[in-house]
């Protein structure tokens, strides 16, 4: 176990990539503290020690009710450490979000953290890693901002990280932080805005399969919209998470004021309402270049091949950024190709319309030409035989009308066919688009559900799976996911029952029964918890019986000792009973009876002129029952007996001296001999 001068290390209570946290006791103050010990490998950086001590001492000077108190900063045997306030329970905002935090409690937490950040910013300190895991609670329920491990002073000439280096947690990272730019208070306010969104909804605003995808969403996508009653908080979230840091809140007190107004039924400030927070940053080559600069990459990456996932490379930030840039260029190229395809389809449609019009005009011209020829022929025939011409003309007219009607019907049928084909094509396209949108939504919900399940956000995971089943009833993965959520609830129930937290275990079983009432392990889990309850009750009953037997044995022993005049042993037995059960009237009465016996022995010894023994018994009575109502009278009685004994001895002594005195010459009077005191008398 690690040893640090002045501290007694009790146990390890936390571990991270850069440090371990121990519970310890300050040997001088006898106070519990949490000690964060930085990993030794950080000392490979020659300047780390000096930077750490300088920055840590700056943070140690922060004194605010919602900032964890730092007691000591030092270096021992190559270990740099910070001793800080210990918060029993270790409850974080992340735990409360997973269990389901109310909006009112969540808003109060955000206000506490905003006050802490406002104070730190006024002292020139930027936290740089605001997230639910770094927000804890004291026993009175107040929120405390912790872990200033990567905090930095805005006035410091040295930095814990180099300029342009990306540092922080991707889900809570501001756009400028993601691009490795110089940070100010706005970065903390953006991160707190993400925490506010997650507190209200139970989910982070931007999530993806990789860290770099999350980073690009922070840079390029608008803030998701809150729904229902939570929509009232949208202006505050928008302003806190504005892409442009100048558009964000410039003072944390303004955040607190807007939230106070909303919680009391009012509205936000005018500045918040008119804030242009919805503007987004496009994924331009300049943005990609800025991130490449933050990671030291100078060459543009190649676009990834189609139908292949980006290879996770979080261990090497250069490869992550290269993949991100390639993703951006690939997306832009695909968008351009899609636009070209749509333009070609539109051009083909217009060409077909033109061809149809030309065909209709040609048919109309041919029709006009035929009618003219027929009229000319009719006129010629009319000269030969008017009757025949009239008959032929009538027949021709009838035929022409029929032909015209047939032609018109053909053209109308052709137009209807084209219109139906176009409508069918449009409907197919709409159905395909809707199907793709549903599949895309299902894919997103599956990813969100898996993320929530991995993070034990079971309610969020269940909601995601239910949304999928609404979109596609009978979806295999969603139905399996609901069963897995129930499995996790049952596992949590068993763990709680094994820890004797049966109330919480029953709650988890109830949640599992609500979402999966036919789960095959539900009955077995209930039986297991019932058996654990019975075992716990049996254990408590056994302990109660053992306790009662111990009391009975101690009373029996005390009474036996008292009966045999072993008064000190009887007193000790009654004292053991009071140690187990303070205020036991029978034990108190037993001590009084022991004192009675001591006083009786004191009187007996005094009557037998054994005043030393009487004094010993009386002292014992005073020790065990200093307020005994017979102490004064017994003490006076012994005192009187002692005086009588002394007087008797003096008279006997004078009687022996009288014959010698009568025969001798008178002598000067001898001084009166002072009476000896007796013990405490």
User: Strand share of the residues?
Assistant: 5-15%
Query: Low-confidence segments, ≥5 residues, pLDDT <50?
Result: 156-166, 290-331, 668-681
Overall mean pLDDT stands at 82
Q: Choose one word for the global shape.
A: elongated
In sequence order, what are the helices and strands, one letter per element?
EEEHEEHHEEEEHHHHHHHHHHHHHHHHH
- How is the main sheet built? 5 strands, antiparallel
Return the structural class: alpha+beta
Number of helices: 20
The helix content is 55-70%
Biggest sheet, spatial arrangement of strands: 1-2-3-5-4
Query: What is the number of strand segments?
Result: 9
**What integer value in Å does the Rg equal?**
47 Å
What is the straight-line distance between the termini? Answer: 59 Å
What does this structure look like?
With 681 residues, the chain is an alpha+beta fold. The chain is 62% helix and 7% strand. It has 20 helices and nine strands. It has helices spanning 48-60, 93-99, 103-122, 175-178, 185-201, 211-220, 234-240, 252-263, 270-273, 285-295, 317-384, 386-454, 458-471, 476-498, 502-515, 522-563, 567-580, 585-607, 611-624, 631-663; strands spanning 7-15, 19-26, 31-38, 70-76, 79-85, 125-126, 135-137, 143-145, 152-153. The strands form three sheets. A five-stranded antiparallel beta sheet has the order 1-2-3-5-4, with helices on one face. A two-stranded antiparallel ribbon has the order 6-9. The chain has a two-stranded antiparallel sheet with strand order 7-8. A hairpin with a 2-residue loop joins strand 4 (70-76) and strand 5. The radius of gyration is 47 Å and the shape is elongated. The two termini are 59 Å apart.
């Amino acid at each position: 176990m690690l040893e640090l001068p002045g501290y007694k290390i009790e146990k390890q209570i936390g571990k991270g990539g850069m440090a371990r946290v121990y519970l310890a006791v300050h040997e001088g103050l006898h106070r519990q503290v949490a000690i964060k010990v930085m990993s030794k490998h950080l000392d490979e950086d020659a300047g780390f020690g000096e930077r750490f001590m300088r920055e840590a001492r700056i943070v140690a000077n922060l004194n605010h009710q919602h900032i964890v108190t730092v007691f000591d900063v030092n270096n021992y045997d190559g270990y740099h450490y910070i001793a800080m306030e210990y918060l029993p329970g270790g409850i974080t905002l992340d735990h409360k979000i997973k269990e389901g935090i109310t909006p009112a409690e969540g808003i109060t937490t955000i206000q506490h953290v905003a006050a802490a950040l406002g104070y730190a910013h006024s002292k020139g300190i930027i936290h740089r890693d605001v997230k639910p895991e770094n927000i804890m609670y004291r026993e009175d329920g107040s929120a405390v901002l912790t872990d200033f491990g990567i905090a930095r002073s805005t006035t410091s000439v040295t930095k814990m990280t180099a300029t342009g280096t990306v540092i922080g947690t991707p889900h809570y990272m501001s756009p400028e932080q993601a691009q490795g730019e110089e940070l100010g208070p706005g970065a903390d306010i953006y991160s707190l805005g993400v925490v506010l969104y997650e507190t209200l909804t139970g989910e982070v605003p931007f999530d993806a399969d990789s860290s770099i995808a999350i980073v690009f969403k922070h840079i390029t996508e608008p803030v998701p919209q809150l729904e229902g009653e939570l929509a009232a908080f949208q202006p505050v979230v928008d302003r806190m998470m504005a892409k442009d840091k100048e558009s964000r809140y410039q003072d944390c007190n303004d955040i607190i004021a807007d939230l106070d107004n909303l919680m009391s039924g009012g509205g936000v400030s005018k500045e918040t309402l008119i804030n242009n927070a919805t503007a987004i940053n496009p994924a331009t080559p300049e943005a990609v270049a800025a991130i490449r600069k933050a990671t030291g990459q100078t060459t543009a990456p190649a676009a990834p091949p189609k139908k292949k996932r980006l290879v996770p490379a979080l261990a090497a930030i250069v490869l992550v950024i290269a993949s991100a840039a390639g993703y951006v260029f690939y997306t832009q190229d695909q968008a351009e190709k899609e636009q070209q395809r749509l333009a070609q389809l539109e051009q083909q449609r217009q060409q077909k319309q033109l061809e149809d019009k030309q065909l209709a005009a040609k048919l109309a011209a041919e029709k006009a030409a035929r009618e003219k020829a027929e009229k000319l022929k009719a006129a010629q025939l009319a000269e030969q035989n008017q009757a025949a011409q009239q008959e032929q003309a009538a027949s021709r007219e009838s035929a022409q009308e029929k032909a015209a009607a047939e032609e018109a019907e053909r053209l109308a049928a052709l137009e209807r066919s084209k219109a139906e084909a176009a409508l069918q094509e449009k409907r197919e396209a709409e159905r395909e688009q809707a199907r793709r949108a549903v599949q895309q939504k299902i894919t997103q919900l599956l990813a969100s559900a898996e993320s929530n399940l991995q993070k034990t956000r079971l309610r969020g995971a269940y909601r995601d799976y239910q949304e999928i089943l609404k979109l596609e009833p009978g979806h295999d993965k969603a139905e399996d996911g609901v069963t897995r959520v129930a499995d996790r609830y049952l596992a949590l129930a068993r763990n709680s029952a094994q820890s004797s937290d049966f109330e919480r275990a029953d709650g988890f079983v109830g949640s599992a029964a609500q979402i999966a009432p036919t789960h095959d392990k539900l009955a077995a889990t209930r039986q297991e918890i019932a058996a654990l309850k019975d075992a716990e009750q049996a254990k408590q009953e056994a302990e109660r019986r053992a306790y009662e037997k111990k009391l009975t044995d101690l009373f029996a022993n005390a009474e036996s000792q008292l009966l045999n005049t072993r008064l000190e042993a009887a007193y000790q037995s009654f004292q053991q009973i009071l140690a187990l059960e303070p205020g036991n009237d029978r034990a108190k009465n037993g001590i009084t009876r022991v004192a009675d016996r001591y006083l009786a022995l004191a009187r007996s010894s005094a009557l037998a002129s054994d005043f030393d023994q009487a004094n010993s018994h009386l002292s014992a009575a005073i020790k065990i029952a200093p307020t005994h109502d017979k102490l004064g009278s017994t003490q006076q009685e012994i005192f009187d007996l002692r005086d009588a004994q002394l007087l008797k001895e003096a008279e006997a002594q004078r009687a022996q001296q009288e014959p010698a005195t009568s025969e001798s010459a008178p002598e000067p009077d001898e001084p009166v001999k002072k009476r000896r005191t007796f013990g405490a008398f």
